[in-house]
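We were asked to recover a plausible sequence for a given structure. The inputs and outputs are reproduced exactly as logged, with field labels preserved.

PROBLEM: sequence recovery
POSITIONS: 356
GIVEN STRUCTURE:
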């Protein structure tokens, strides 16, 4: 039997006839239910995700199988132990994400999952906001390091939510004196006139997602006062024209629906002491008449410019219901297949629209 230390837990390696086995000895101070899950639900996730047999006896967890599988399995369990020892709980979804993150970290030698998942951004009313995937952590780190950051990815990847959390953090730590949250109301187009109420009443539905996220991060009673004093501003993109925004943290949401001109207008509002985060999903462009998306084109214009970062998130970073990630992946596959079919048809004869 060969013993060795493995970060937060003790791992013993046993060479057996049937292959390699590893035993993770869990610290006695850790409740085993928090590790294996109620009715062993976390163990079932591990067994379905890892090609290793798992046996739990007391505070020991034994993995058996081929060497790569048991190595990965032991690494995943040690990451779970490290996370649980900080007081943070686990869920079925987070355990499933942890497997992929540990595999990636083992392959590329990047940040360990426990370091990613315990990085606190903001706490409010007992709720702590943290990155939940490696790409989210890289996105948050980019916001810390750069003045302008673009977060591009599908729905549910936390692009806007994390940007707003960083904005509130910057305000609380006095890095900025105000927060400006904006998004284009392109869906409204010229049809705002038929909606009842004042212009503010007409625009509010398009800004509601920003208000909802804000209420998660700031005490609801203080939001009206902060908005009245101009410390927090939530406004349509059109309201940014002609302004210079100093000492502000500015978040542009749904930027795929900006035109080329609007994107340039927005980015040139940047003033001294300010930070800008632009978020959007270039697969969900609602611009009319084939108009070019400012977000889709901006990477080719600004990529490589100093102090500007582009962060790409994927369906693997979706942190809503697990089904959302599978829906996004299914649509990506469908659109890729459709594109190949159209491309193949175009190579043989002109494509004239209609169903492929």
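RECOVERED SEQUENCE:
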């Amino acid at each position: 039997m060969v013993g060795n230390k493995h970060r937060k837990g003790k791992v013993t390696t046993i060479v057996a006839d049937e292959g390699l086995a590893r035993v993770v000895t869990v610290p006695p101070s850790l409740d085993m239910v928090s590790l294996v899950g109620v009715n062993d639900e976390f163990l079932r996730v591990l067994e379905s995700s890892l090609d290793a047999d798992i046996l739990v006896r007391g505070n020991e967890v034994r993995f058996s199988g081929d060497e790569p599988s048991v190595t990965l399995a032991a690494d995943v369990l040690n990451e779970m132990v490290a996370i649980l020892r900080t007081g943070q709980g686990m869920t079925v979804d987070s355990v499933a994400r942890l497997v992929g993150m540990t595999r990636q970290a083992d392959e590329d030698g990047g940040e360990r999952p426990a370091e990613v998942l315990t990085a606190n951004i903001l706490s409010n009313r007992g709720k702590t906001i943290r990155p939940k995937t490696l790409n989210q952590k890289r996105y948050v780190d980019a916001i810390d390091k750069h003045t302008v950051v673009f977060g591009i990815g599908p729905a549910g990847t936390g692009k806007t939510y994390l940007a707003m959390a960083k904005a509130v953090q910057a305000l609380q730590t006095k890095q900025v004196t105000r927060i400006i949250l904006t998004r284009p109301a392109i869906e409204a187009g010229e049809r705002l006139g038929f909606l009842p109420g004042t212009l503010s009443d007409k625009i509010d539905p398009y800004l509601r997602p920003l208000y909802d996220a804000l209420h998660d991060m700031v005490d609801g009673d203080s939001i009206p006062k902060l908005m009245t004093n101009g410390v927090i501003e939530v406004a349509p993109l059109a309201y940014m024209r002609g302004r210079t925004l100093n000492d502000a943290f500015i978040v542009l949401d749904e930027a795929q629906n900006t035109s080329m001109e609007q994107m340039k207008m927005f980015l040139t509002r940047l003033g001294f002491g300010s930070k800008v985060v632009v978020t959007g999903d270039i697969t969900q462009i609602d611009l009319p008449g084939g108009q070019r998306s400012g977000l889709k084109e901006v990477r080719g214009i600004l990529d490589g410019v100093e102090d500007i970062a582009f962060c790409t998130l994927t369906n693997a970073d979706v942190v809503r219901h697990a089904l959302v990630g599978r829906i996004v992946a299914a649509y990506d596959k469908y659109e890729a297949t459709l594109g190949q079919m159209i491309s193949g048809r175009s190579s043989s004869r002109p494509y004239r629209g209609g169903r492929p």
